[in-house]
Amino acid sequence: xxxALIVCDGMADRPIRRLGGKTPLEAASTPNLDEAARRGATxxxxxLAPGIPPGSDVAHLALFGxxxxxxxxxxxxxxxxxxxxxxxxxxxAFRGNFATxxxxxxxxxxxxxxxxxxxxxxxxxxxxxxxxxxxxxxxxLRHTTEHxxxxxxxxxxxxxxxxxxxxxxAGLPLAEAKPLTVAASKTAEVVNEFTRLALKILGEHPLNxxxxxxxxxxxxxxxxxxxxxxxxxEPLTARFNVKAAFIAVTSLIRGVCKxxxxxxIKVEGATGTTKTNVKAKAExxxxxxxxxxxxxxxxxxxxxxxxxxxxxxxxxxxERIDGMVGYLLDRLNLEETYLAITADHATPISVGxxxxxPVPLLILGPEVLADGVEAFSERACMRGGLGxxxxxxxxxxxxxxxxxxxxxxx
Amino acid sequence: xxxALIVCDGMADRPIRRLGGKTPLEAASTPNLDEAARRGATxxxxxLAPGIPPGSDVAHLALFGxxxxxxxxxxxxxxxxxxxxxxxxxxxAFRGNFATxxxxxxxxxxxxxxxxxxxxxxxxxxxxxxxxxxxxxxxxLRHTTEHxxxxxxxxxxxxxxxxxxxxxxAGLPLAEAKPLTVAASKTAEVVNEFTRLALKILGEHPLNxxxxxxxxxxxxxxxxxxxxxxxxxEPLTARFNVKAAFIAVTSLIRGVCKxxxxxxIKVEGATGTTKTNVKAKAExxxxxxxxxxxxxxxxxxxxxxxxxxxxxxxxxxxERIDGMVGYLLDRLNLEETYLAITADHATPISVGxxxxxPVPLLILGPEVLADGVEAFSERACMRGGLGxxxxxxxxxxxxxxxxxxxxxxx
Lengths: 410, 410
Hints:
The structure is a homodimer.
Chain A: E1 2-8, H1 24-27, H2 31-39, E2 41-46, H3 56-63, H4 68-71, H5 76-82, E3 92-102, E4 105-108, H6 116-125, E5 138-143, E6 148-154, H7 185-203, H8 206-213, E7 221-228, H9 236-239, E8 244-247, H10 251-259, E9 263-264, H11 278-291, E10 294-299, H12 301-307, H13 311-331, E11 337-342, E12 359-364, E13 387-390, H14 393-401
Parallel strand pairs in A: 1-10, 1-11, 2-13, 8-9, 8-10
Antiparallel strand pairs in A: 2-12, 3-4, 3-6, 3-7, 5-6, 11-12
Helix pairs in contact in A: 2-13, 3-10, 5-10, 11-13, 12-13
């Protein structure tokens, strides 16, 4: 027996007046998701607890069976792990953005969504930063996509408990990192020195001169957020005694997957946007299940569209996901495979951010008790036979079908 | 007001292809269970948590309202208590089997399912075992049924944290008990010395000579498993201020019932197998409710059939249970009695062991809100008005109807 878990990032939503009170998932054409619901069991899931909005990292920790509210230690280290950096115990890591600064103000938090090639050149210039005040701290840095960076500080007595230098929205001053605990004052100094040095190096970089000439926003600063250390958790591969793989592009999600001990599977054309090649992902999933007991597949696009409050793009992405599910219903051996489909949180178009609404869940497979629900949506799954579950239950339902849970007691 | 809880061990199952995708409970003829569902409220229950497979002892602790994952201290002491042995604080007890050994190998873990009379004679020969290395430890031993024993070690500084000598399946060597904590090394020595002495005494026993002559497997060793001490829990009789009784044959379940402070009721013809006399059990339940506020009734057969993967026997047992429920619907005064029916875990025929699937629950009685569900099954109860509950909620539902729960707050 094999199992796959597909998480459609931010797919869940709320009723929308323009759609006659339907949700995007209800209004989109989703014959394959509906067919899967008809053949399986459905329910709704509070990823953390009713009403509590989860970040995508925390949501995935929960969906992999961890007590996310307890084990989460910040975003940064997961982001760095997902960017294939080595993160050691004691390392404190941050998510970074190349940004446009002008006289201490953050003019654009993404440096005009700078292209990856340019950003990579700038990241190279930051590789050999030496801190003067704290020479015992090493700065490690990796560019991921577009304006995105992961930054790791390695040295004695560092703490993740410092405030962000990223002010969170454009037009505000670059923030100074402040220690949030007494033990974090060294780290705050480290972050602030790094920030000053990066400003200097980037401000003098010829690529920024060139961007200025071409009328592009300069990428003349790095803003940091989400200081974190790696959570210490038992890999799910050990907990459930499974060979496990993942298909995901987004660094943060990749980091959670790697923390859980899953092996990455590379897919050509998967980009983590609405243009992602879902068909290629589905093909990779079918192939991965030949080798692995469990495969996790992350589809990002619906969340991006929701953050942009772009209803049409969200519905188009849902329909692409539906096509992917159709491919899987055709190609997976459903006599020997359990398939769960859910979301990591709702990102309502009306809100443009994560909310704490429950997400729909469906499970199908050889011994799943079909519950008579005939569609996959936030509303239809409210009536589902699985009832209302928590995020950390989902992997247990799958592992129960795979016989990978130890009996407690005699 | 009175209340009864009927637990049908291992009754819940999964859809079975030979039954057209129905579960045994759906496919069997169960007019009385369905009538009870129509008159009452239904739901599904995760005995511990979604997906987590419980042992029967742990499941019953949960159904009696205890936080089973926290209070459980191993099987052995519950088994000994259920065999009507005295178990004192500090005592460490094991479940034992008479087994057939040959040159250190366990050839048969049940000594050819030795008859009870022979096993009782052998158990007598083990009554006066004196340990040489640890003379401060007393060995107490009781035969229960067929090959089954309960063994209690009494003395200073004993620990339940030793590994089993039972290798778990035939054809493997008799295992040496190993300490699982530093504090358990004395106990491991005690168990190993007991095992050696038992081998010697049984090997020389005339009954084994006789069995050899008759071509029967010798019962020339004792294998131990499930070391445990008694959990310290408040009896439910005190917690809920009820007079409570139980009807159960299986030692392990009897032990949990006694731990919970319930009084045993003896039933003629109740055997803990599929041949158990369910009618006699039902009569005893009706009678017990004249005296007691709460009576628990355990029916074992469906689990035995499931472990043997015998679908016909499981369905026949379900139909016998249905007959018992019919008798109860006729004879109980349902104007003054609440009746709950559930299972302690699923034991799917396809798996032959406990799984973490939820179990169906029904409650009927004078003030139960009927929910419109018209059948008692894993699937029908998914739609039930009670929703999805946890095992430890069930007794609280009953005690709430009996007015035995204290208001929390003002």
